[in-house]
Amino acid sequence: MTPVVELAGVTKRYGAHVAVHDVSYKLDAGKTVALVGHNGAGKSTLIRLMLGVTRPSTGTIRVLGLDPSSGGAAFRNRLGFLPENAMFHPASTGREALDFFAKLKGAATSRNMALLEQVGLAAAADRRIDAYSKGMRQRLGLAQALIGTPEILFLDEPTTGLDPGFRRSFYEILGRLRQSGVTVLLSSHALGELQGAADRVLVLNSGALIADGSVAALRALARLPIKISFRAAREGQGLGPEWQRQGDGKLTRFCEPNEKIAVIKAIAPRLEAKDDLEIEEPSLDDLYAHFLGPEAES
Ligand SMILES: Nc1ncnc2c1ncn2[C@@H]1O[C@H](COP(=O)(O)OP(=O)(O)OP(=O)(O)O)[C@@H](O)[C@H]1O
């Protein structure tokens, strides 16, 4: 399958500052891919490079088989973009804003109501945008990005500032888009919200791509320890020193993911029906901190 996006050895410098350093990847059609990293990691710069708004200092970029910086209007209409801070005229209604953007894109305005419906804004179509919540404005931004039925959507931090309910419903809309075959590339600070929402995660640190894979593959790569705890009716004598008694009376130890079953088998003969066994997998926030450091935001 020909990749829809292909970067090879892409570096972007602003003066002496390297915003993106030697990044290469290929994206397949129909996948949802997340770019994850701290503030300043280079996520927006990569999106701008793929949109053709800025050119790489070195390396090559192909989007839908073309150099995005030399693509014309027909090429741009095959892409949708939701900027980090989508701006709309506050006095216009959602419907008027979409009409404006459709005209800019040379697209028919007749689909706009269907787009508003798709993002759950049909009932608010004729309300002024200054009365929209942040979550509603982000959905309007998504509807704007969907004008003209784009093949690839670039969404720059679409869920930043949204409360958990709005985040969830935003990802539900993205899930439906994924089923319709659109390729989605979104950036995010938070790995935690991407479980089940992204097929693949690209982790960026200081402009460099430091990890690339599904959430499950990143978990396997990180090999973060698993915590096993149990509270036994009988004393857990004879267990090794790796088992520590906690303040709540539970016995706890950490182990490598590939030791988990052996550890459970070793304690199984001591467990009775009324005993309590807990297996705690590392959280996605732990995984983010593993790749990007303890000051990780979630
Ligand atoms: N036009 C520019 N001129 C100079 N430096 C820039 C420019 N655009 C970005 N940078 C710098 O490049 C680095 C990467 O910025 P970028 O906006 O791509 O990061 P980001 O991962 O999107 O961050 P955030 O999560 O804060 O949006 C930053 O250090 C930023 O200051």
TrEMBL record:
Keyword presence, Aminoacyl-tRNA synthetase: no
GO molecular function annotation: ATP binding; ATP hydrolysis activity
This protein's UniProt keywords: ATP-binding, Nucleotide-binding, Transport
InterPro entries for this protein: AAA+_ATPase (IPR003593), ABC_transporter-like_ATP-bd (IPR003439), ABC_transporter-like_CS (IPR017871), ABC_Transporter_VariousFunc (IPR051782), P-loop_NTPase (IPR027417)
ABC transporter domain segment(s): 5-231
Pfam family, one: ABC_tran
Nucleotide-binding found in the keyword field: yes
Family label: Belongs to the ABC transporter superfamily.
The protein, known as: ABC transporter ATP-binding protein
Name of the gene this protein is made from: nosF
